[in-house]
Amino acid sequence: MSFIYGELLARMGVHELPEWVFKWFQNMQLFEASLDPKDILLNIELELGLDIDAETDLLFFDEIGECSNALKSLKFFAEKRPDLYLCASGSNIGLLDSFPVGKVEMKELFPMTFEEFVMASGNPKILQAFRQGAQLQAAHNKLWALMLDYYFVGGMPEAVTTWFGKQNKEGLLAGINERCAMVQSIHKALISGYLRDFGKYAGKTNAQHIDMVFRNVPLQLSKNIDASVKRYRFSGIIERKRSYLDLSSPIDWLEKTKLVSRCYPIDCEPQSPLVPYRKDNFFKLFMFDVGLLGHMLDISYQEHRQQNFEYKGYLAENFVQNELRASGYYPTYSWEFRQAEIEFLYKTPTGEIIPVEVKSGKRTQAKSLRSYKERYNPKRTMKLIGSVGSGTSERTDMVWPLYYACRLCTL
């Protein structure tokens, strides 16, 4: 089953399900004879040995891309059974060209955000402080500790559940070393699954190229020690392929499957709308989950907890990218001019462009932000840093803790 299944059910408050729910079968005959919802529902009831109640039951078609008739049936469910609760998910939905347009409401799900990670921690007081935007030292100490945990665990639901709720044989919460090992095992299995999907949903040659590009994204990110992430370099990844045109196909494939995301640097004065400044072959590439990013780079939990860990800059930037994307702000943009670089440009609903400097540590000196201010005199600026920040009273040159990146959407 895809991770979307478990995440969606968890967000609906469903945690304990009958054993038959987890039964995985690939009986294409359920959809072969007829696409009429009446016939399909009868087939499912016979297969599972139960009755479906449209008022209380949720029908879930997981990995729907594996069965073209199941995909086609969504149109008929929308037309003939609008009273039925029906969800569909799949690893390759972003690659499908035949989705029933106008008949299906699309919902885009991502790995759990930091707010959802705080929810999963089971501490209502800390969650309340986070949602209120508190910038108090006591709250920061707790939230920053969770932030460092999030760097390691990431937002994949199984990893998060294991981190906060895995019990040992005696029924006690597993120790830190045991939980670290279990999370690493989950990360390893997830990466292996993605690599298998490359061969499953793409041609053999193309799958090899997708594999090479996917593995290369963390490597390029890790080369940025104490500076902004640089634009993606196309050379040295696949033999005899050195340009954007050579790699555009595997990059587009990975973006459609939501495994990577882009941020477009702008090298002039940014104004709304930002889209005209975008260059198709000029972008940064980020991983969709910081936990898997760290796993692919073999960063241990102990390293994540070290305050002087020199490679945190790109992790912080990737974190902000993912938080913005999950909140619906995509694609993202950055700014660079000569040696000055601003990690993100956030455009408010009123069209105001706010430069956002991202710092993984506590220091707040920002030469690039100063350069940007001297050039364009923005109304407001933002620094996201690894400390408590400047408090909520500052409305012009704002300094927030890094974990409040999602609150940019409230400006």
Number of helices: 15
| Dominant shape | globular
Unreliable stretches, pLDDT < 50, 5 or more residues? 1-8, 15-26
N→C terminal distance: 38 Å
Structural class: alpha/beta
Question: From the alpha-carbon coordinates, what is the Rg to the nearest angstrom?
Answer: 23 Å
Mean pLDDT over the full residue set: 87
> What count of structural domains?
2
Q: Which percent range fits the helix content?
A: 40-55%
Oligomer: single chain
Describe this structure in words.
- The strands form two sheets. The chain has a seven-stranded mixed β-sheet with strand order 4-3-5-6-7-8-9, with helices on both faces. The protein has a two-stranded parallel ribbon with strand order 1-2.
- The two termini are 38 Å apart.
- The chain folds into two domains: 3-95, no CATH class; 114-410, no CATH class.
- With 411 residues, it is of the alpha/beta class.
- The chain has helices spanning 3-11, 29-32, 37-48, 68-80, 114-120, 124-131, 137-153, 157-165, 176-201, 204-222, 244-256, 290-296, 301-305, 312-326, 367-376; strands at 58-61, 85-88, 260-266, 284-287, 332-337, 340-347, 353-358, 381-385, 397-401.
- The longest helix has 26 residues, at 176-201.
- Mean pLDDT is 87; it is low at 1-8 and 15-26.
Describe the secondary-structure layout.
Layout: H1 3-11, H2 29-32, H3 37-48, E1 58-61, H4 68-80, E2 85-88, H5 114-120, H6 124-131, H7 137-153, H8 157-165, H9 176-201, H10 204-222, H11 244-256, E3 260-266, E4 284-287, H12 290-296, H13 301-305, H14 312-326, E5 332-337, E6 340-347, E7 353-358, H15 367-376, E8 381-385, E9 397-401
Parallel strand pairs: 1-2, 3-5, 7-8, 8-9
Antiparallel strand pairs: 3-4, 5-6, 6-7
